[in-house]
Write a structure and sequence with these properties.
Blueprint lengths: L1 E4 L5 H13 L3 E6 L4 E6 L16 E5 L19 E3 L2 E3 L5 E5 L6 H14 L3 E3 L17 H14 L3 E4 L6 H7 L2 E4 L7 H8 L5 E4 L6 H13 L5 E5 L17 H8 L4 E3 L1 H5 L5 H10 L4 E5 L17 H17 L6
Parallel strand pairs: 7-8, 7-14, 8-9, 9-10, 10-11, 11-12, 12-13, 13-14
Antiparallel strand pairs: 1-3, 1-4, 2-3, 5-6
Bound molecules: phosphoenolpyruvate (PEP) and manganese (II) ion (MN).
Amino acid sequence: MIIKFKEGTQKKDIEILRSALMGMGFNIHESIGESITIFGVVGDTTKFDANSLYAYKFVDTVLRVQEPFKKVNRKFKPDDTIVDCSGVLVGGKNIVIMGGPCAVESEEQIDTITPLVKASGASVLRAGAYKPRTSPYSFQGIGPEGLAILKRASEKYHIPVVSELMSIEDLPAFLENVDIIQIGARNMQNFSLLKELGKTTKPILLKRGLANTIEEWLMSAEYIMAGGNPNVILCERGIRTFETSTRNTLDISAIPVIKKLSHLPIIIDPSHASGRWEYIESLSKAAIAAGADGLIIEVHPEPEKALSDGQQSLKPERFDELVKNCRRIALAIDRTLE
Ligand code: PEP
Ligand code: MN
């Protein structure tokens, strides 16, 4: 961390800050110019709020040179993390496909779609039992019955399931019924939820918030890891921009940025990113080419009749085609899609 004092700062003020920082265990490298003094602060600043230094009236600029996250940082763990999701490995050479409807609607719907997505190459079934909807009048999910349906499908078709947890009180039911707990975009900064997840060892699929920076997203992952759970998978699902042709804007750059900053696997959700089924294959191929470790895609047996997100849900046959085409991209960059 670098601190620049305002021009003309008194020696006694510089000493006040020096002893405060040294009292916190930092070492100071001082550089005294003709009118400006600079401190180079050395030590672990992860637990220190650099902005708090602006409370000193003689501090001009504070520059952080160390990232505020530690456990998710690639500098802390250079090798890629591979998350074992009930036998499906996310983060290795293989690209993992998660597919299924936006929401669990009925036993029949899940019983129809599960063998189809599995046959096409999905190794994880996705479906929400609890749905975060903008309108309180929209379909909210079928709750506990949805989790039971997912559990039965998982056992019948031998496929792990991922589903979104919205509130802490449902955590025990999720620990029992699902293989991966999804934290949706709207809950990315629900810190009490993240702390509880840190106490488990369940794989967590942490979606990026609608308008959150990559650093904020990694800090949320840090909450889970700091609590003791190393099994975090990041999911980019599009961010809010000025563009209105798509539901959100898929931030493809997040893939190389995350790969540089963190050892955690990153998957892409082209369904919520684009909001239109026509764009999903193109974004999926781009994501794989850019280095994503997997995709999570909405697939519905009859999108026209879906209770949520039908407009961005693929029909099973289109999903099948998409996986085939994505496999060709994967092979071209020396990865596999099995
Ligand atoms: C979902 O995956 O069903 C979902 C609601 O996603 P997001 O949190 O990314 O909007
Ligand atoms: Mn959805």
